[in-house]
Amino acid sequence: MVKRALWQGLVAGAAGAAVMTVGEKLEQRLTGRPDSYVPALVLERLTGMPERRSRAVNLAMHFGQGAVAGVVRSLMANAGMRGPVASALFTAVRLSNDQILENATGVGAPPQTWPRRELVVDVLHKSVYAFATGVVADRLAGRPGPGQRHAALRPGRRSDVGPLPRHRV
Fold first, then answer.
1. Are 41 and 106 within 8 A, CB to CB?
2. What is the pTM of this model?
3. In this structure, what DSSP letter does residue 145 have?
4. Cβ-based neighbours of 13, under 8 Å, separated by 6 or more
5. How far is CA 36 from the centre of its chain?
6. Among residues 50, 104, 138, 139, which one has the fewest Cβ atoms lying within 10 Å of its Cβ?
């Protein structure tokens, strides 16, 4: 399952990052908000590169981080955690990933200190990413995962439904 989830997650995450980017560009056109070079600064600080805020470095971090985070959503899908609820949970994972890297490098500040409008825009874009990534990850996962097979025996979290028999994935 892990090997499949790895390539599926990279594909799903890159697709989600592409959809998020289109949404960001549309929003920027409507609001006049300038490009953010926070991803570039984070990558430059993580790697020790000179801080140039280049578009190429920005896109590399934007899509790289999106692709790598997509592996988590793919693991969720392959385990049987699919659909909108799984994507909503994954939104928190994606936001946390950003905040850990931004705050650890000193590029960002904790979200509770941000202007509300900026916070809403960021959460909106990360939600678009999470749901787009989820659609692709769920589709690529294909067959039902262990969690879905368990729920098919008797829905819900129940102690009277034993673990599924082992089978090769």
1. no
2. 0.89
3. P
4. 66, 67, 68, 69, 70, 71, 73, 74, 133
5. 18
6. 50
